[in-house]
UniProtKB/TrEMBL annotation, chain A:
Record-given protein name: ABC transporter ATP-binding protein
Domain ABC transporter: 1-234
Keyword Transport: yes
Annotated Gene3D superfamilies: P-loop containing nucleotide triphosphate hydrolases
Classification via InterPro entries: AAA+_ATPase, ABC_transporter-like_ATP-bd, ABC_transporter-like_CS, P-loop_NTPase, Siderophore_ABC-ATPase
Protein keywords: ATP-binding, Cell membrane, Ion transport, Iron, Iron transport, Membrane, Nucleotide-binding, Transport
Gene source species: Levilactobacillus suantsaiihabitans
GO (cellular component) term, any one: plasma membrane
One Gene Ontology MF term: ATP binding
UniProtKB/TrEMBL annotation, chain B:
Endpoints of the signal sequence: none
Chief localization: membrane
The protein's role, per its UniProt record: Part of the binding-protein-dependent transport system for heme-iron. Responsible for the translocation of the substrate across the membrane.
Family that this chain belongs to: Belongs to the binding-protein-dependent transport system permease family. FecCD subfamily.
Natural source organism: Levilactobacillus suantsaiihabitans
Protein known as: Probable heme-iron transport system permease protein IsdF
The entry's keywords: Cell membrane, Iron, Membrane, Transmembrane, Transmembrane helix, Transport
Amino acid sequence: MECQHVSYQYSHQTHGLHDLTGTFPTGQVTTIIGPNGAGKSTLLNLLAQRLPVQAGQILLDQQPIAQLKPKALAQQVAMVTQRHQLYDELTVREVVATGRLPYHGLLQAVPDAEVTPYLAANGLTELATTLMQDLSGGQQQRVWLAAALAQAPSVLLLDEPTTYLDVHFQQVLMTQLRQLAAQGMTVIQVLHDINQAFRASDWLWLLQDGKLVASGTPAQLRDAQLLAQVFATPIEIVDVPQLGPYIVQIPQ
Amino acid sequence: MSKSSGWWYGGVLVLLLATGVLALMAGTTWIGLPQVIYAASHPGSTTFVTVFSLRLPRVLSSLICGGSLAVAGALFQAVFRNPIADPSILGISSAADFFKLGGALLLPWLPGRNWVMAVVGGLVALIILTSGRALADPYRLIIVGVALDATFVGLQQLVSSGAAQVSRSTFNGTTWTDATTVLILGALGLIGALLLAPWANYLKLTDDALKSVGMPVNVIRWSLLLLGMYLAVSVTAVVGAIPFVGIVVPNVARRLVGHDYQTLVPFTMLAGAWLMLAADTLGRTVIVPSEISAATMMAVIGGPFVIILLQRGRGFHGMSTR
């Protein structure tokens, strides 16, 4: 997936995205990082076509995604958002089944047999008939991820996927994303935890004020001066035994 | 469908059958079951006329109207994501009633006048309701709806003070012509509702979530909204505005058979049919030879229900708009 001169401007607001050009390597985990208001979520929403690209284009397999029909796009790109909301009761199975909707007609039901493998693969078989509202935040997150994977996408977008997870499940999720990438999926996520981003990614996009400041491997971007300038705070990179380089903010 | 849902389905079917038979027997004159059966094979007898020309069309009309109103409420609740949304409380029915009156005064030559005018009225109310910010805020929606309802009721009173009352809101005097109209209009809408019930389930997700799986949210929303409006105004066109059926029945039904619209819509249809028939039968038998209109019966039953539903704070259970 790649961006070519992509811009987006919110009406009545100063921030937006300005002339972004760059690629998200296929089969790798890319993390978008940057300070608040840099445009990380906006970029993710553009990649998912939840917001229309105002200038430039986003290409998927050399084809502009704006030209794809909604269902065709949903078969290629899936998104797990920060906070999912339900207006009424749905069971885990019903939520995961929504991931199969792009493969069926509007009046066709999703066969159970199509949903079951995705429940099993995400450890949700036991919870299949449980109502979403009876699950913990972490479990709900797993269900939404399973629903996104049920779309069988080639690109998986995740906005702050670790927000409702404890440290253990954060680790589990990051490992799972690595595995998905290893199977050929392009994983693109937004993370606030900068160290997690450097540890869990193959590729990084560094955004500031709606512009792409730098993109590259974690090793290429592990530059205290660059990060200090982008995050507008003194930053030092220290070596922690058994963990490797660790980015710390120095109190002013 | 779960086992307990099966029992509730069985229960409502038994109630329907029992109340249906009772409704044919009860009235100004009590006609025993043997006489009803006897009359069936003796057309032309006085009993036959009472049972099959007066009571049966009325029974059928109230069944279809009850089912239509209840399903219309369930569909509105799904679309507006609000458990007390309903065409009667949101001013759709009273707009239809007002336009029906306007049609009678200004366009008496119009073919299918009552129905056409009721649909126009329903559409006007729907457009006003959905054009502003009411859609985004469940409380604003209800307040706008109540204001709309009051406006159209007021307009109708303003106009009708100088004209004959067109709207009766009662099943009294229902003829076979009325019953046939209701049957055809109602059956079409109810079949549509059964087919589109899965769409109501989709609207439990946010618009964004639906769009990201390629679903045409607006097509789904407007199809269900127009279908609900059609069901409600078809009742208004023939009988008049009857309040609360669409709030009471789906909310009780959710407690009994759950929130899956594929189970909920058929159950709501049956339970609504039963409630309307029971209310109408009770209304025409408690103060014989006079009678209480179906609208009055439903206001007396439904008003307190909505108050309890909201005051106990469980009304928004499972449908929180957060």
